[in-house]
Amino acid sequence: MSSPTAPARGTALLAGLVSLAVGIAAWWTAASLPVVPDYVLPSPGELVSRAVTLFRSGGLGVHLAQTLAEVLQGVLIGTVAGVLLAVLFVRLRWLEKLLMPVIVVVQVTPKISIAPLIVLWLGLGIGSKITLIALVTFYPILVNVVAKLRGMPTAFDDLSVVLGMSGARKARVLQLPFALPALLAGLRVGVLQAVTAAVIGEFIGAQAGLGYLEKQAQDNDDIQVVFITLILLCLIGWVLYAVVDLVERQVKARFDIG
Q: Where do the domains of the chain lie, and which CATH numbers do they carry?
């Protein structure tokens, strides 16, 4: 049986596809105007042709794989760090008071200012980009999970005492399942920030990646490659967001969470 929201989702999807088609048509029309040169606005057809050529040569695939590897590993590390810190902060308030000011300072500092420091410390390889991505990913997860765990009913604590659960087992069996919707909500924000962080890190210093490729294209006045990398980065962010959103909706439906 389809859910009551299925028609609404279908309508939203159709509206999105129509909007995308209209946008592409408007872009194609604008690019076809004599007053708009190719070096200012290439047409979608030209970009597709150039992207296919780059993929066949192997260059674009390498850079795409590099950025995906950075984002996925950084998000995974950031998620684990955010959840572990959240559990510790709820149990040890003194630890939260000790570390949270430092965490907040790091988060409010522009990442484009932190990135050169991380690159200098960790080098031009993938490690510096993963570190930067983990830094921006874990904070929304940390804040959401801490708030959720602090609202956990006292019956959960009583149950853990009755069953003689250790702290680790309580976190695994009771706290993490209870905080899962909050974790996924934070992850939706985190994956978008992760793509931005990857590009910043690759702009500052890298040997591969879509951000690195875009910077090279900018230096060479190659607007087609700039557009291609920008579109691919948008697609990565959109796909990751859509996957997390789908998982979140499934979790809410499975556990009847509003």
A: 45-254 (1.10.3720.10)
Q: Give yes or no for a contact between 214 and 229, defined as CB atoms under 8 angstroms apart.
A: yes
Please tell me the least confidently modeled range out of 27-41, 98-112, 153-167, 219-233: 153-167
Alpha helices in 92-221 (DSSP H): 93-108, 111-122, 126-150, 154-162, 167-170, 176-204, 210-219
**Prediction pTM value:** 0.85
Name residues whose C-beta falls within 8 Å of residue 44's C-beta, 6 or more positions apart in sequence.
24, 27, 28, 31
Q: How many CB atoms are located within 10 Å of the residue 236 CB?
A: 20
Name the residue among 199, 192, 190, 198 with its Cα closest to residue 71: 198
Residues 171 and 87: beta-carbon distance below 8 Å: yes
Measuring CA to CA, which residue among 236, 255, 233 is closest to residue 244? 236
